[in-house]
Amino acid sequence: MIEVRDLQVRYGGRLVADVPALDVGAGECVAIVGESGSGKSTTLLSLLGLTENAEISGHVRVCGVDVLSASQKALREIRGARAALVMQSPQAALSPATRLGVLLRRALKLHGRPATDEVMARALEAVVLDREILRRYPHEISGGQAQRFAIALAIALGAEVILADEPTSALDVTVQAEVVGVLRRLRAERGLALLLVSHDLALVSTIADRVLVMKDGAVVESGPAAEVLAQPSHPYTRELLEALP
Protein backbone atom coordinates (compact mmCIF):
# COMPACT_ATOMS: atom_id res chain seq x y z
CA MET A 1 0.00 0.00 0.00
CA ILE A 2 2.96 2.32 0.73
CA GLU A 3 6.30 1.96 -1.03
CA VAL A 4 9.14 4.42 -0.45
CA ARG A 5 12.70 4.34 -1.77
CA ASP A 6 15.42 6.96 -1.35
CA LEU A 7 13.02 9.67 -0.19
CA GLN A 8 14.68 13.01 0.55
CA VAL A 9 12.84 16.15 1.63
CA ARG A 10 14.59 19.51 1.59
CA TYR A 11 13.57 23.04 2.54
CA GLY A 12 15.76 25.77 1.10
CA GLY A 13 18.40 23.19 0.28
CA ARG A 14 18.50 21.84 3.85
CA LEU A 15 17.85 18.11 4.14
CA VAL A 16 15.16 17.53 6.78
CA ALA A 17 14.15 13.93 6.03
CA ASP A 18 16.11 11.09 4.43
CA VAL A 19 14.35 7.71 4.27
CA PRO A 20 16.10 4.97 2.24
CA ALA A 21 13.21 2.49 2.42
CA LEU A 22 9.73 2.27 3.90
CA ASP A 23 7.05 -0.29 3.05
CA VAL A 24 3.61 -0.80 4.58
CA GLY A 25 1.45 -3.66 3.30
CA ALA A 26 -2.23 -4.40 3.81
CA GLY A 27 -2.95 -5.28 7.43
CA GLU A 28 0.47 -4.05 8.60
CA CYS A 29 1.47 -1.30 11.02
CA VAL A 30 4.79 0.47 10.66
CA ALA A 31 5.80 3.14 13.18
CA ILE A 32 8.19 6.04 12.68
CA VAL A 33 9.56 7.12 16.05
CA GLY A 34 11.86 9.89 17.22
CA GLU A 35 11.91 13.11 19.18
CA SER A 36 10.42 16.40 18.00
CA GLY A 37 12.27 17.69 14.94
CA SER A 38 13.53 14.28 13.88
CA GLY A 39 11.76 14.45 10.50
CA LYS A 40 9.05 11.88 11.16
CA SER A 41 6.03 14.15 10.56
CA THR A 42 7.65 15.68 7.48
CA THR A 43 8.11 12.16 6.12
CA LEU A 44 4.46 11.34 6.78
CA LEU A 45 3.13 14.48 5.08
CA SER A 46 5.40 14.03 2.07
CA LEU A 47 3.71 10.70 1.32
CA LEU A 48 0.50 12.58 0.47
CA GLY A 49 2.16 15.51 -1.26
CA LEU A 50 1.36 17.85 1.64
CA THR A 51 4.81 19.38 2.19
CA GLU A 52 4.45 22.88 0.75
CA ASN A 53 7.54 24.57 -0.72
CA ALA A 54 9.61 21.42 -0.20
CA GLU A 55 12.03 19.87 -2.67
CA ILE A 56 11.28 16.15 -2.75
CA SER A 57 13.16 13.40 -4.56
CA GLY A 58 13.02 9.62 -4.61
CA HIS A 59 10.27 7.09 -5.22
CA VAL A 60 6.94 7.26 -3.37
CA ARG A 61 3.89 5.14 -4.22
CA VAL A 62 0.71 5.20 -2.12
CA CYS A 63 -2.22 2.99 -3.16
CA GLY A 64 -0.57 2.52 -6.54
CA VAL A 65 -0.19 6.26 -7.22
CA ASP A 66 3.26 7.75 -7.89
CA VAL A 67 2.96 10.67 -5.48
CA LEU A 68 5.93 12.68 -6.75
CA SER A 69 4.78 12.74 -10.38
CA ALA A 70 0.98 12.66 -9.91
CA SER A 71 -1.22 15.62 -10.75
CA GLN A 72 -2.97 17.54 -7.99
CA LYS A 73 -6.24 16.04 -9.21
CA ALA A 74 -4.87 12.50 -8.79
CA LEU A 75 -3.56 13.33 -5.32
CA ARG A 76 -6.90 14.80 -4.24
CA GLU A 77 -8.58 11.59 -5.36
CA ILE A 78 -6.49 9.39 -3.06
CA ARG A 79 -6.38 11.75 -0.07
CA GLY A 80 -9.12 10.80 2.33
CA ALA A 81 -10.82 8.37 -0.01
CA ARG A 82 -7.98 5.84 -0.20
CA ALA A 83 -5.28 7.20 2.11
CA ALA A 84 -6.52 9.10 5.16
CA LEU A 85 -4.51 11.42 7.39
CA VAL A 86 -5.38 11.42 11.10
CA MET A 87 -3.77 14.30 12.96
CA GLN A 88 -2.91 14.81 16.61
CA SER A 89 -5.82 17.22 17.15
CA PRO A 90 -8.55 16.42 14.60
CA GLN A 91 -10.97 18.88 16.23
CA ALA A 92 -8.85 21.74 14.86
CA ALA A 93 -9.58 20.54 11.31
CA LEU A 94 -13.35 20.39 11.84
CA SER A 95 -15.61 23.39 11.29
CA PRO A 96 -16.71 24.46 14.80
CA ALA A 97 -20.09 25.72 13.53
CA THR A 98 -21.07 22.50 11.74
CA ARG A 99 -22.50 19.34 13.27
CA LEU A 100 -20.47 16.18 12.80
CA GLY A 101 -23.24 14.51 10.80
CA VAL A 102 -23.22 17.33 8.26
CA LEU A 103 -19.42 17.20 8.03
CA LEU A 104 -19.52 13.47 7.42
CA ARG A 105 -22.20 13.73 4.71
CA ARG A 106 -20.30 16.52 2.95
CA ALA A 107 -17.07 14.50 2.92
CA LEU A 108 -18.84 11.45 1.51
CA LYS A 109 -20.53 13.46 -1.26
CA LEU A 110 -17.25 15.24 -2.09
CA HIS A 111 -15.61 11.89 -2.80
CA GLY A 112 -18.63 10.46 -4.62
CA ARG A 113 -19.53 8.05 -1.83
CA PRO A 114 -23.12 7.25 -0.77
CA ALA A 115 -23.98 9.51 2.16
CA THR A 116 -26.61 7.17 3.60
CA ASP A 117 -27.52 6.60 7.23
CA GLU A 118 -26.44 2.97 6.86
CA VAL A 119 -22.94 3.89 5.62
CA MET A 120 -22.44 6.35 8.46
CA ALA A 121 -23.83 3.98 11.07
CA ARG A 122 -21.46 1.19 10.00
CA ALA A 123 -18.47 3.51 10.15
CA LEU A 124 -19.38 4.74 13.63
CA GLU A 125 -20.01 1.20 14.84
CA ALA A 126 -16.53 0.19 13.66
CA VAL A 127 -14.94 2.73 16.00
CA VAL A 128 -17.39 2.19 18.87
CA LEU A 129 -19.21 5.51 18.61
CA ASP A 130 -22.95 6.04 19.09
CA ARG A 131 -24.91 7.58 16.20
CA GLU A 132 -26.02 10.32 18.59
CA ILE A 133 -22.59 11.91 18.15
CA LEU A 134 -23.60 13.04 14.65
CA ARG A 135 -25.87 15.67 16.24
CA ARG A 136 -22.99 17.23 18.15
CA TYR A 137 -20.56 20.01 17.26
CA PRO A 138 -16.78 19.39 17.37
CA HIS A 139 -16.37 21.31 20.65
CA GLU A 140 -18.98 19.06 22.29
CA ILE A 141 -16.93 15.86 22.01
CA SER A 142 -13.83 14.63 23.82
CA GLY A 143 -10.38 14.22 22.30
CA GLY A 144 -10.79 10.46 22.16
CA GLN A 145 -14.16 10.76 20.44
CA ALA A 146 -12.66 13.21 17.93
CA GLN A 147 -9.88 10.75 17.08
CA ARG A 148 -12.37 7.92 16.63
CA PHE A 149 -14.61 10.15 14.50
CA ALA A 150 -11.64 10.96 12.25
CA ILE A 151 -11.01 7.23 11.87
CA ALA A 152 -14.73 6.62 11.21
CA LEU A 153 -14.61 9.23 8.44
CA ALA A 154 -11.68 7.38 6.86
CA ILE A 155 -13.60 4.10 7.04
CA ALA A 156 -16.75 5.61 5.54
CA LEU A 157 -14.68 6.93 2.63
CA GLY A 158 -13.24 3.46 2.05
CA ALA A 159 -9.66 4.28 3.05
CA GLU A 160 -7.16 1.48 2.55
CA VAL A 161 -4.36 3.30 4.37
CA ILE A 162 -4.35 5.45 7.48
CA LEU A 163 -1.42 7.76 8.17
CA ALA A 164 -1.63 8.80 11.82
CA ASP A 165 0.51 11.62 13.22
CA GLU A 166 0.77 11.35 17.03
CA PRO A 167 -2.90 10.28 17.23
CA THR A 168 -2.88 9.61 20.99
CA SER A 169 -0.34 12.06 22.43
CA ALA A 170 -3.02 14.50 23.65
CA LEU A 171 -5.11 11.76 25.30
CA ASP A 172 -5.00 10.19 28.74
CA VAL A 173 -3.81 6.62 29.12
CA THR A 174 -7.27 5.02 29.19
CA VAL A 175 -8.46 6.81 26.06
CA GLN A 176 -5.13 6.06 24.31
CA ALA A 177 -5.81 2.37 24.85
CA GLU A 178 -9.30 2.75 23.32
CA VAL A 179 -7.97 4.44 20.17
CA VAL A 180 -5.13 1.93 19.76
CA GLY A 181 -7.62 -0.90 20.26
CA VAL A 182 -9.78 0.47 17.44
CA LEU A 183 -6.80 0.73 15.08
CA ARG A 184 -5.60 -2.77 15.93
CA ARG A 185 -9.04 -4.25 15.28
CA LEU A 186 -9.42 -2.42 11.97
CA ARG A 187 -6.10 -3.82 10.80
CA ALA A 188 -7.25 -7.35 11.57
CA GLU A 189 -10.82 -7.05 10.26
CA ARG A 190 -10.35 -4.82 7.22
CA GLY A 191 -6.72 -5.34 6.22
CA LEU A 192 -6.07 -1.65 6.85
CA ALA A 193 -2.48 -0.48 6.35
CA LEU A 194 -1.34 1.83 9.15
CA LEU A 195 1.64 4.19 9.21
CA LEU A 196 1.98 5.62 12.70
CA VAL A 197 4.18 8.54 13.74
CA SER A 198 4.89 8.66 17.46
CA HIS A 199 7.47 9.51 20.10
CA ASP A 200 5.86 7.00 22.48
CA LEU A 201 7.77 3.72 22.29
CA ALA A 202 5.51 2.10 24.87
CA LEU A 203 2.50 2.69 22.62
CA VAL A 204 4.41 1.61 19.51
CA SER A 205 5.34 -1.69 21.14
CA THR A 206 1.65 -2.61 21.45
CA ILE A 207 0.69 -2.20 17.80
CA ALA A 208 3.62 -1.91 15.36
CA ASP A 209 5.02 -4.76 13.27
CA ARG A 210 8.08 -2.76 12.19
CA VAL A 211 9.78 0.40 13.41
CA LEU A 212 11.89 3.14 11.83
CA VAL A 213 13.84 5.30 14.28
CA MET A 214 14.64 8.81 13.04
CA LYS A 215 17.11 11.35 14.41
CA ASP A 216 18.01 14.70 12.83
CA GLY A 217 16.18 13.74 9.64
CA ALA A 218 17.89 10.39 9.14
CA VAL A 219 16.79 6.81 9.76
CA VAL A 220 19.28 5.48 12.31
CA GLU A 221 17.66 2.10 12.90
CA SER A 222 14.88 -0.01 11.46
CA GLY A 223 13.52 -3.53 11.68
CA PRO A 224 10.89 -5.71 13.33
CA ALA A 225 9.42 -3.85 16.32
CA ALA A 226 10.04 -6.72 18.73
CA GLU A 227 13.74 -6.85 17.84
CA VAL A 228 14.39 -3.11 17.70
CA LEU A 229 12.67 -2.43 21.01
CA ALA A 230 14.14 -5.44 22.80
CA GLN A 231 17.71 -5.19 21.51
CA PRO A 232 18.34 -1.77 19.93
CA SER A 233 21.60 -1.44 18.04
CA HIS A 234 21.80 2.36 17.89
CA PRO A 235 22.64 4.50 20.96
CA TYR A 236 19.80 6.92 20.16
CA THR A 237 17.22 4.12 20.24
CA ARG A 238 18.62 3.01 23.58
CA GLU A 239 18.27 6.59 24.86
CA LEU A 240 14.61 6.67 23.82
CA LEU A 241 13.95 3.38 25.60
CA GLU A 242 15.79 4.47 28.74
CA ALA A 243 13.63 7.60 28.87
CA LEU A 244 10.46 5.51 29.25
CA PRO A 245 8.84 5.93 32.68
UniProtKB/TrEMBL annotation:
Q: Could you give a GO molecular-function term held by this entry?
A: ATP hydrolysis activity
Annotated signal peptide: none
Q: Which InterPro entries match?
A: AAA+_ATPase (IPR003593), ABC_Ni/Peptide_Import (IPR050388), ABC_transporter-like_ATP-bd (IPR003439), ABC_transporter-like_CS (IPR017871), P-loop_NTPase (IPR027417)
List the keywords (alphabetical). ATP-binding, Cell inner membrane, Cell membrane, Membrane, Nucleotide-binding, Translocase, Transport
Every copy of the ABC transporter domain together lies at 2-241
GO CC annotations, alphabetized: plasma membrane
Entry annotated with the keyword Methyltransferase:
no
**Its topology with respect to the membrane?**
Peripheral membrane protein
Q: What Pfam families is this protein classified in?
A: ABC_tran (PF00005)
Localization recorded for this chain is: Cell membrane
Where does the chain cross the membrane? none
Superkingdom of origin organism: Bacteria
* Family in the record: Belongs to the ABC transporter superfamily.
Q: Which PANTHER family match?
A: ATPASE AAA-TYPE CORE DOMAIN-CONTAINING PROTEIN (PTHR43297:SF14), OLIGOPEPTIDE TRANSPORT ATP-BINDING PROTEIN APPD (PTHR43297)
Q: What is this protein called?
A: ABC-type glutathione transport system ATPase component
Q: Which organism is it from?
A: Nonomuraea thailandensis
